[in-house]
Design brief:
Strand order of the largest sheet: 1-7-6-3
Number of strands: 48
GO molecular function: calcium ion binding
Function: Potential calcium-dependent cell-adhesion protein. May be involved in the establishment and maintenance of specific neuronal connections in the brain.
Structural class: mainly beta
Protein name: Protocadherin beta 4
Number of helices: 9
Strand content: 35-45%
Subcellular location: Cell membrane
Membrane topology: Single-pass type I membrane protein
Helix content: 10-25%
Shape: elongated
Distance between the termini: 82 Å
Length: about 800
Amino acid sequence: MKKLGRIHPNRQVLAFILMVFLSQVHLEPIRYSVLEETESGSFVAHLTKDLGLGIAELAARSAGVVSDDDKQRLQLDRQTGDLFLREKLDREELCGPIEPCILHFQVFLEMPVQFFQGELLIQDINDHSPVFPEREVLLKIPENSQPGTLFPLIIAEDLDVGSNGLQKYTISPNSHFHILTRNHSEGKKYPDLVQDKPLDREEQSEFSLTLVALDGGSPPRSGTIMVRILIMDINDNAPEFVHTPYGVQVLENSPLDSPIVRVLARDVDAGNFGSVSYGLFQASDEIKQTFSINEVTGEILLKKKLDFEKIKSYHVEIEATDGGGLSGKGTVVIEVVDVNDNPPELIISSLTSSIPENAPETVVSIFRIRDRDSGENGKTICSIPDNLPFVLKPTLKNFYTLVTERPLDRETRAEYNITITVTDLGTPRLKTQQSITVQVSDVNDNAPAFTQTSYTLFVRENNSPALHIGSVSATDRDSGTNAQVTYLLLPPQDPQLPLASLVSINADNGHLFALRSLDYEALQAFEFRVGATDRSPELSSRVPARAGAGRQSTTRPSRLCPLNALRPAPSWCPGPPSGYLVTKVVAVDGDSGQNAWLSYQLLKASEPGLFGVWAHNGEVRTARLLSERDAAKHRLVVLVKDNGEPPRSATATLHVLLVDGFSQPYLPLPEAALAQAQNDSLTIYLVVALASVSSLFLLSVLLFVAVRLCRRSRAASVGRCSVPEGPFPGHQVGVSGTETLSQSYQYEVCLTGDSGTGEFKFLKPIFPNLLVQDTGREVKENPNFRNSFVFS
């Protein structure tokens, strides 16, 4: 079969030869019978016993029933193996006059493919009466007609067959005629009127008789027609056809009004008795609709399109009648010649649209082909493209099975479009194409693969807990749930390494987090392994990783801004830029693992968009450049929550004040300022009085201090930064317990704005600096929470 797939012409020839061979294989069919007009759903047979199969096998092998005429008149119950009628059957509609009436069907099974031939005999019942095409017939008989002369009469039609069909004719009792029933070669029965004694027109010129047609049913059914007989004057020569029968062949694609044949009859009589007219005699409705005859010339014309596949030949009876009423009979046999006007048909009986990858030989589709033409026009060949991993296998009676040639790989190709081409051998050749789309479903046959062979992570010592230190990533070539990767930490090779308390990993995205603060002096680096697994059946891979702790500098900066004494300094100070570190919020959770992963977020702010909180380390930074238009007081609510189930959380409230430098020795809290504003009005009067008495003294002191400060500032070094002496109140600065930014500093700095290298002077700042005040804690839930507010 592989060679057949590579060579397209040979493949088609071999498939065709095998098809012809298999079509000639004779398998004894299973036969059943049923009466026509039996109600739908009626039981026909129990197939499991006749086929030698079990009931469970029918369902497991997807048994089905297919009829030759494409109409599903039978239904198979796979659970019981019973065969039922899907619809009421009419024998006359299915077979017409053909006897016996047999409905051919096939029973097919899959895995492996197997076929059984079946025949259902539809038995006739007497449900139709004989019917004459007309209600009355006129018969003209010359008076010199001799006894024993036969006069053909019109026949009756009975759709039933066999004993239920038309059996005999009778006529009403009279003294001059009786009926003779004759059998035709085609099986039809014809009535002939037989003259019993001489006629005398002067004695009786007309007879009215009743002709009765009887069938053989029980009870018998009948049909009647009135026969009127006129006695005519003598015309002793009837017309005779020159040739009888006439034989002619006509192509089925002949156009309408095409001449078929011209018949000729002669009458030796003279005058009106010698003139001949032509007509169709005892023609069926089909012949009347298909042909017409010219009464004068005898030329037969085509009135309806011919179809070889429906009717292959016509027997047309012609009657030639002279002026005296005598007639002669002739026959024209018209044979329809087939032309290639029907493309092949492809009927799919079974189709599987999805096939799992790596599966062995799998049945994709079962179908059959048919061509309604005959001879070479009805012979077909079937093929598919050669570049596909599929093959066609011919089976019984034009049935084909489309199967996979080898196991499929979804990662190489996930979908196949298969075009089945059926071509006949007629002239011109006609073909039919049917496209089938086959999806290759995924199975878990690829393990996750890391994007790197190893990972190296760097963490500064004294880091905050739950710090994101890096990520690992793995991909899976499978699809859907088979490609979902889960990350995990493998047991360390060193049993002394407490890996579970050092690092954790997010199982969904591979993010790595440090669970505790690292100390370079205690642990400089450690190695561990990360695993990645997919869905069932579980496939996995692993990768080594190394995490190292970086040493943190503990030297206090001696200079916060560049110095350049060559240029004079302008008299303005820039405000904090965007991203300026205002403070840092630190929370500690007594849990471990994922339950100790903490994340920070800004829950509420009096002015949104001015400050932001970093989710992993809790740093509060400015989101944009501060300006004089911003409010002086800001209230921030920071939320911290762990990664447990259910998550637990806590909140802290921060108050941020924008001040003009740190020259003020004490900055009251908003609550203290509010309480002071509510003092009694008597205090205000006392302050005013004291100020009036001592105003002169204070003015003198201020002038003296101003002179001294002016002289001292001129003697100071150019460009140095001034730090106010004396500590600020403890509630303004918090100290972290994690050794990160462990000291808090407050500076009042003046920096030149031209090139970044100006000199420094002790000037009063114009733009505001930041002051953070911790107003306490608002703990909603555990974990333990503490704040460290740092700014520099």
